[in-house]
Amino acid sequence: MVDPISFGSVRPITGQTMAAATANRTTTSAAASTEAGNINLPSLPKLVRLAAEIASEGPPIDYARLAPIRQAIAMGTYGVDPAAIAKALLK
Is residue 61 part of a domain? Predict the structure, then answer.
């Protein structure tokens, strides 16, 4: 029997990558302004709020890529290569 995998609060990946979503959010909510050659960076509280907002959304999950893996696990056909796992752990 395979127990269901739960990821808590997740959101599916849309056409936008995480880097693009973060860059878009950063430019709109924490844009730097230039006055007489000086750059005013966003304040620390704004950055903390932005980080909390991004963290509360949860990681993006690519359900299209995850579906065949879940199906293989459920059917008992998911192959595990212990040598590859051990090699990756030693890196």
Answer: yes
pLDDT tens digits for 23-76?
555 454 444 444 445 555 667 888 888 889 988 888 888 999 999 999 999 999
Phi, psi of 60, deg, nearest 5: -75, 140
| Beta-bridge mates of residue 60 | 11
Domain count, the chain: 1
Could you tell me which of 65, 53, 46 has the C-alpha nearest to residue 9? Answer: 53
For 2, phi then psi, to 5°, come to: -105, 125
With vertex at residue 53, the alpha carbon angle to CA 49 and CA 56, rounded to the nearest 5 degrees, is 135
Which of 1, 50, 44, 48 has its CA nearest to residue 24? 50
Tell me how far apart the alpha carbons of residues 55 and 48 are, in angstroms, rounded to a whole number: 10
Q: Is 34 helix (H, G, I), strand (E, B) or coil?
A: strand
